[in-house]
Structure prediction request, 225 residues.
Amino acid sequence: AQRVTQPEKLLSVFKGAPVELKCNYSYSGSPELFWYVQYSRQRLQLLLRHISRESIKGFTADLNKGETSFHLKKPFAQEEDSAMYYCALLYGSSNTGKLIFGQGTTLQVKP
Amino acid sequence: DGGITQSPKYLFRKEGQNVTLSCEQNLNHDAMYWYRQDPGQGLRLIYYSQIVNDFQKGDIAEGYSVSREKKESFPLTVTSAQKNPTAFYLCASSTLQGANTEAFFGQGTRLTVV
Prediction:
């Protein structure tokens, strides 16, 4: 069955430290993967897509099909990065859309 | 002002009653979704719809029902058969563009059974 797993409920780091939020997925086809973020009192919103291969707010994520992972990384955490992060998987054909999410990881960046 | 709107923000229901949560979007998106958010469990998919007059069950559809009579609207009914309905409910919509898909979320409805 298709599944997205985020093993850490809470990740706490100091400002300036590197950050890695883990995401593993289970899907036999070709996955489309995303990271979504929810800042305090704001709506859940897209942070980045695996296909874009670009850095957003200093975050990057690489799809590793061998390890079925899509970890989110940032070399130097900032206090404003504190938020809830969700990894998401879209599967089916290109014109269908079953979008499932992991359990979420709360990132806490301490000053 | 484009976006996705959920109402009400807070909802109280007595046990044994059905209740309907509203979700409207003016983004012209084909797909719409309902998720339930519980602490420690992330977002779990209840129902989704890719086109008007069609919808599919998600992972936790039991005790819920939906309709998609208009492209803009995807209401969720929490029935008395749902054993643990107290939760935060999120609605989302998206285009269907494969890897370029982006889902837009409402602000959520917090349902409490009293």
